[in-house]
Amino acid sequence: MVDSIKAYLERNKTVCLKQRLILVDISKVIQQSDGEQMMLDRYLATDLHLLFDVFWLGEVEIHSELHHINMRAIYDVVRIRNAPYTAVERVSALRSKTLSQG
After folding, report:
1. Residue 20 gets which letter from DSSP?
2. What is the Cα–Cα distance from 46 to 77, expressed in whole angstroms?
């Protein structure tokens, strides 16, 4: 999440284009949400959850350049979303270990 996509791209000219990157500019939302900081965090978490679903994103990572946003609800959405992939990786690692020992 950024407060200016243009500024982000200017600062990060070597953005890795081999991975899907979705930049979310929330500057307009922040300007309109004076006094609603607690609800803003929850709304962002809900909106990002919907975004993940619409784009069929499986395992996701999220980073924010905005230090004044409470990311807890957003990180909860990401953790829940990534849980099945983490479980699959664990099972796969156990299977590989078992096959290499056998």
Report:
1. -
2. 8
Q: What is the DSSP string of 21-51?
A: ----B-HHHHHH-TT-HHHHHHHHHHHHHHH
- pLDDT tens digits for range 39-89: 888 888 899 889 888 888 778 888 888 887 888 988 898 888 888 776 666
Does the predicted TM-score (pTM) go above 0.85? Answer: no
Q: Helix, strand, coil shares of the chain as percentages rounded to 5?
A: 60, 0, 40
The tokens 């284009």 sit on which residue? 17
Q: Which two tokens stand for residue 99?
A: 């096959």
Tell me whether residue 6 is exposed, middle or buried, using C-beta atoms within 10 angstroms of its C-beta: 0 to 12, 13 to 18, 19 or more. Answer: exposed
Q: Three-state SS for 79? A: helix
